[in-house]
Structure prediction request, 480 residues.
Amino acid sequence: MKIKNAILPGTDPRSRWDVHFESNTITRIDPAAATNYDSDPSPLLLPPLCHPHIHLDKAYLLTCNSQHLPSTHAGEDQSKHPDYSDLTPQDGSFAEALKFTSLAKQRYTAEDLYLRGAQLLATSLQQGVSSCRAFVEVDHVTGQLCLQAAIRLKECFHGKMKVQICAFAQEPIFSTEHGEENRKVLQHALDECGDHIEVLGTTPYVEKSMEASRRNIEWAIETALMYSLHLDFHLDYNLDESQRPLAPDVLRLLQGKKWNERADPRKTIVLGHCSRLTLLGDMEMAVFALAIRNSGLPIHFVGLPTSDLFMMGRPPQSPLPANSKSANRLRGTLQVLDMIKERQLNCCLSVNNVGNAFTPWGTGDPLALASLGVGIYQAGTDEDANLLFECVSSRARRAIGLGTSSALHAGDSDAMQLDDDDTTELKEGRKGELLLIKNKEFVICPGHLGIKVPARQRISVRDVVWDPPQDDLRQILRSG
Prediction:
C-alpha cells in the first residue's frame, strides 16, 4: 500500500509525503513529488483511535431497537429487542442511573445485546477506532448473557477491531444478599470462558461498607493474578469529602500482593473515574503521584468526562439548605492533562457510555471527546492538542496493554500490532494501523441552495482535535 501526498504530524504542514505501508508497518517515507501537490486535497495521516473504557452491553439503551428496525431485520421478532423508553433519565442522578440500568438488565436478550453492541462497534470503526476495552456485566441477573454476546461480537469484528473483553462486576460482590452469588457467577465465567476474557473489572464503590470495598479490591487483585488478567477498577466515583478515596488502598494492596513480582509484566492496572481525587490538595496529590511513580506499578488513569460532567457536581435536592452553594458546583472529572504534565502519571481519556442513563448525550466519538477536552482543561496550545489526541490514541492503547510498555500475548492471532512509540509521530518501522483523515475540496450545501465554497483543510493534529472531521472522512488503514 502506498499513501500519496500525505500530511504527517510533526512535519511542516506545507510538506507532503508518500508513505509506503506493508504488513502493518511503515517501510518507507519519501517526500512527495512537487507535481503531485495540486492534485486532490491531501489527507492527514495519524495513529488510530482507541476506546480504553467503553460499556458494550449498555450502549444505546435510550435509542433502543424495539421499533422500526432497518429493513434488513424486517423479519426479526420484535420481542427480541426490549423497549427501554421508560428508563429515560428524570432527575439525572447517579442513584437513578444505577437503578434504571439494573432494570434494563432484567430485559436483556441475546439478540438485543448483539445488535446494540454491533452498532456501537461499527460506529466506532467509522470514527477511526481500531481497538477497545469492552466492559460486559457478569452477575446474578445477567449470568453470562452479556459475556456471550461480547464473545460473538469479538469474533464478528475479528481482523477489523481489537475487542478486549473485560468481565465486569458492576454489582456488589462482598455485600448485599446477592454479593456471594455475584462473585460465584463471575468466578464461573472466568473458569468457563477464560480464553476470551483478558480483563477483570470491579466497582468497589458499590459495596455497602468500606471494609467490603477493600475486600472487593483485594479479591480482584488476587483473582487477576491467578488468571493472568489485566485489572480495571471503577473507583472513587463521588465528590464527597467525608468519603476517603480508595485509590491509595488500591496502591497499598497491589504492593502488598507483590503485583510487580507475580504479575505478567504485560498486564496493566487501570483506575477509571476517580473523581474524588479532584478534591485532594496539591500536596496530597503530589505525594500520591510520587508513591505511584516510586512503586513501579503499571497504573493508568482513565478520565471519563462525558459521564462525569453529567453525573457529578449536582445541586442539593430541594428544598435547598440555608448554606447551599448550588451556584458554585464542582464538575468532578480527573485533571488528565495536569496529571500527565505535572505529576508524570499515565493517563488517557475514554467515552465510557453511549446513549444510556449514565451518559444520555454524545456519539461516542473519541475525537469529539478530545475536542471537548480543549474546553474542560482550558488546553488551547498546539502541544495540548497533540497531548489530547494521544489521550484517545497511543496513550489509550498503552493503558489497555497495547502500547510499548506491554507486549502481545504469544500466539494471540486476534491482537493488532503495536505502536512503536507513544506519540503522534509517524516514522519508518512503525507498526500498527493508521488513521487516514481525508480532506474535501469543497463544502457543498444542499443542492437547492446553490452554495459551494472551498473546504477548510485539516493539516495538523490541532485541526482534528479542535474541530473533529465528519465520520465519513475517516478510514482505518491496515495492510498485509
In short: The chain has two domains: 2-47+424-477, 50-314+329-399.
